[in-house]
Each structure stands twice: as C-alpha cells, then as structure tokens.
Design brief:
The structure holds 2 protein chains of 2 kinds. Chain A is of the alpha/beta class. Chain A has 8 helices and 10 strands. Chain A has a 6-stranded mixed β-sheet with strand order 6-7-8-3-9-10, sandwiched between helices. Chain B is mainly α. Chain B folds into 2 domains: 100 residues, no CATH class; 70 residues, no CATH class. Helices cover 72% and strands 0% of the residues of chain B. Chain B has 9 helices and no strands. The two termini of chain B are 24 Å apart. The chains are: A alpha/beta, B mainly alpha. At the A-B interface, helix 2, helix 3, helix 4 and helix 5 of A face helix 8 and helix 9 of B.
Chain lengths: 244, 218
C-alpha cells in the first residue's frame, strides 16, 4: 500500500537530544544543483551560516524546518524526518524570514502574534497571556492594536520574531534577520538572538553577530567548505571572498 | 494608507460582540429606509454621534475622517434632490447616508478585525458541508486587509525608483512600467508568504478549531 499521507505512517518519536542531522543531503531546483553532499550534525546552541549570495544558504536554512525537502538524502530534527513529519518539525523549528513584511500576515500586531497559536489550537485565554507576554518582552505591548504596516522596520522584525517565539519552538532559524535594518535595529535584533534560550541557527552577512557563536559553517557553491569555531571559519570566509 | 480603523478603548461599545454590532447596523439601515422621515434620520444621526463620541469615547477625528470621505457624495445628493425633488427629501437622504456611514465607522472603530473575521467565519460555517474551510476564508480576508497597504507601499517605491532615474509614472506607459515590476515583486512575496504560513502552522488544523476565535487583547 502506498503511503500518500504522513498521518498514515507510524508515529515517529522525537528525541530532543538528537539535534538536527543532515544525511547525504543534496538539493536541486530543476536541473540546477543548489546544495550537494551535506552530512552534518547540528547540536550546538549557536550556529552561524555564512556564504556569498547564491551560495545556497537560504535553501540550507529552509531545509532545517522542512520548508524545503531535499531532493536527495534526509534531514532529521530530533529524529523526525522533515519529509514525513513536516508539521511536527515546523512546531519544533521556528523560522524568521529576512523580510518581515512577508511574514506578518494579519493587520494588527496582537492578531499577528496570535496567528501561530491559533493554528496550534491554543485556547483563547492562554493565547492572550502568551501574546501579551511576548509583546511586552519585545517592547511591542503599546502597539498591540496598531496596524502592523505602520511599525518601523526594526519593530516589524521584532514582531516577526515574537510571532515565532510565542509558539515556543525548541530551535529557531533566522534567515538574514538584520539585512534590511539600520545599525541600531540590527544590534537590537542581535541582542534578542543572543538572549534566546533556544538553539539558534542564523544565516547572516553580519559577521560580528557570529563572534560569540559556537560554530560557523561557510557555504560555497552548495557545499560546506569550512566548519569550525567562529574565528577560523570567518577568516576562511574572508579569504574565500578575497580570492574572488 | 491604513485599512485598520480600530481605535483601542475600554468602553461598553467595544465590549459588545461584533455580531451584535453588525446586526444593529443592518437593523438601523433597514429602519432608516423604511421610515424616511426627518425626525427619524436626524434622531438616528444624533444617536450614532452620541454612541460614537460618548459611549465609545472615539476621537472626533475618527468619525470626521469617514464623513469627509463621503462629503462630495453628500453635497451631490443634496443638490440633486433639492433640484429634482424637494428640500425635505434632500435632507432625509443626506442625513440617512451620513448616519449610516458614521454608524459603520463606529462599528469598525470599536471592533477588532479578528472579531469581524470571526463573525464572517461563523456565517460561512454552513459551507463546511461543501468542503470549504471557513477559517481559510477568514485568513484570506485578514491577509487582504494586511497586504493592501503593503502593495501600495511597494507600488510607491517602484514609482519613486523610476522617478529617481528620470522616468514618469504618469499615463499608460507609467502604468505599464509600474505594473510589471510590481507583479514580479508580488509573486516573489507571495512565495515567501506561503512559506511563512507553512512555517507558522497554517496547515495545522487543531481539533477544536474550525471557528476562529478573536485575537486576544494584549
């Protein structure tokens, strides 16, 4: 019998100690290879991902919560395969996009922050409590009923982060979260990331953000060409870029 | 540009359920058309203003803004009826339209979008019989309200970028040179929005869901 829906498969058991595993992962868009031969175990609390534009970083980030399923190989999050348990994986791995305007889907701040909780079926009183708490934590409590599109760029990114964190994922992937922000807001977002208790994986061009990280991956032409502590990895990335 | 007209206040009008307010608005419209007299329309207008400014504690600007948007219609209607009917008819027509516009403004200013959407979802719930998910209809409405201002901003940016390079945003050519890049941007954005919806569990259908309860007051 063909297994057409993930619900028909036997329930996979998650093991939070396993982290994220990529086994023989390759990905291509049509005929164009984007990522190739990735075998990684991502368990450290702070992991950075750097690479040139078009190197495959964003596709790599999307693999980690099942937004993109690899054309070859397996991505396992806490032992759950992103191919067969995408919904459960997305509950465990939050994703913050580069452009908050594309991530905010409701007209007002509180409504948008509550969106993920509605999808999880969280009862209204608990939702209200959690939304109030997360908006207060990120300085948005006074904007709860304001139109989201009137927020500043930094506030929008904070709302995008709040909308993810309110769902209490165990891990959060950030795809270039500071690219569209000025220096003050970029630093503010960096502080927010630094204070998170969750495992954090950040795709960024802001190299100073990664200095306190545990591990940095350098991606070039779809392959991990350096996988080390921040200083040697960033040095290798600079050297790679200077050779271009 | 803003489509979100909600004015946060702690008032008895804000606490009235959205469905009741919408029903009251519909009843008011029927009554004003069924009883087209000057005392009725004038009284309704006064009542709406008292409810809006007094009970709901809305700022005068919130109602004045809505009245301004129909000002030229009101003037046109008044002149038309004054010329082709009579002055009492002109007054009743204008007062009726103004009362309804302000009543709608009071409803939108005292009701969160999520509460309105919840009412629409309840009204759409019979469509479940045909496989339609009312929550999806609600999400579409909320997203339309959210993204129309974003679309306007993007269009402005494109026009500015063209103006900065000596282009003109006027006329058919201006329209063409704005629409094409805007469409490309919107398609790219739609892809990311789809991903964001997935990432935030849009496909999760909790057992108790089906009706989208209003967003919490934070």
């Amino acid at each position: 019998m063909r297994l057409g829906r993930q619900e028909r498969r036997p329930e996979a058991v998650a093991d939070p100690t396993r982290g994220i595993e990529l086994r023989g992962v390759s990905h291509r868009y049509g005929d164009r290879p984007v990522l190739a031969g990735l075998d990684l175990h991502l368990i450290e609390p702070r992991i950075g991902i750097v690479g040139a534009n078009g190197s495959g970083k964003s596709t790599f980030a999307r693999l980690l919560n099942g937004l993109v399923v690899p054309t070859e190989g397996q991505v396992l999050v806490d032992g759950l395969d992103t191919r067969t348990a995408a919904r459960e994986v997305r509950r465990r791995v939050g994703f913050v996009f580069q452009d908050p305007d594309a991530q905010i889907v409701h007209p007002t701040v509180a409504e948008d922050a509550a969106y993920g909780l509605e999808n999880q079926g969280v009862p209204a009183p608990e939702r209200a409590e959690r939304v109030a708490e997360v908006l207060a934590r990120y300085g948005l409590a006074g904007h709860a009923d304001h139109p989201a599109h009137l927020l500043s760029g930094g506030q929008k990114q904070l709302l995008a982060i709040a909308g993810v964190l309110v769902m209490r994922p165990a891990r959060v992937v950030f795809d270039e979260p500071t690219t569209l922000l000025d220096l003050i807001n970029a630093r503010r977002i960096a502080r927010v990331i630094d204070e998170l208790e969750q495992q954090v994986l950040v795709v960024t061009h802001q190299l100073e953000l990664l200095e306190s990280f545990d591990r940095v991956l350098v991606i070039d032409e779809g392959r991990v060409v350096e996988d080390a502590a921040p200083h040697p990895a960033i040095a290798a990335y600079r050297s790679l870029m200077e050779r271009r | 540009m803003t489509l979100a007209l909600y004015v946060p206040r702690r008032s008895p009008v804000h606490r009235v359920p959205a469905g009741v307010k919408l029903l009251a608005l519909a009843v008011l419209a029927v009554v004003l058309f069924a009883v087209p007299t000057l005392p009725m329309t004038g009284g309704a207008l006064v009542a709406v203003v008292v409810v809006g400014l007094g009970a709901a504690r809305l700022p005068v600007a919130a109602l004045a803004r809505q009245a301004r948007t129909v000002l030229w219609w009101l003037i046109g209607l008044f002149v038309f009826h004054a010329l082709f009917s009579d002055l009492p008819t002109a007054a009743v027509t204008v007062l009726r339209l103004l009362a309804l516009v302000l009543a709608a403004a009071v409803v939108t200013a005292t009701t969160r979008v999520s509460e309105m959407v919840a009412v629409i979802e309840r009204l759409c719930s019979p469509l479940r019989l045909f496989g339609v998910r009312p929550a999806r209809i609600g999400l579409v409405i909320a997203m339309a309200l959210r993204f129309i201002p974003v679309l306007a901003e993007r269009a402005d940016r494109i026009r500015e970028a063209q103006a900065a390079r000596g282009g003109s945003a006027r006329g058919i050519r201006g329209l063409r040179t704005t629409v094409a890049p805007l469409l490309v941007q919107l398609l790219q954005m739609a892809h990311t929005v789809g991903e964001a919806l997935d990432a935030r569990g849009a496909d999760d259908v909790p057992p108790a869901r089906g009706r989208r309860s209003p967003a919490p007051a934070a």
